Amino acid sequence: DAKTTQPPSMDCAEGRAANLPCNHSTISGNEYVYWYRQIHSQGPQYIIHGLKNNETNEMASLIITEDRKSSTLILPHATLRDTAVYYCIVRVETSGSRLTFGEGTQLTVNP
Amino acid sequence: GAVVSQHPSWVICKSGTSVKIECRSLDFQATTMFWYRQFPKQSLMLMATSNEGSKATYEQGVEKDKFLINHASLTLSTLTVTSAHPEDSSFYICSARDPTGIQALHFGNGTRLTVT
Question: Does residue A21 register a pLDDT over 70?
Answer without folding.
Answer: yes
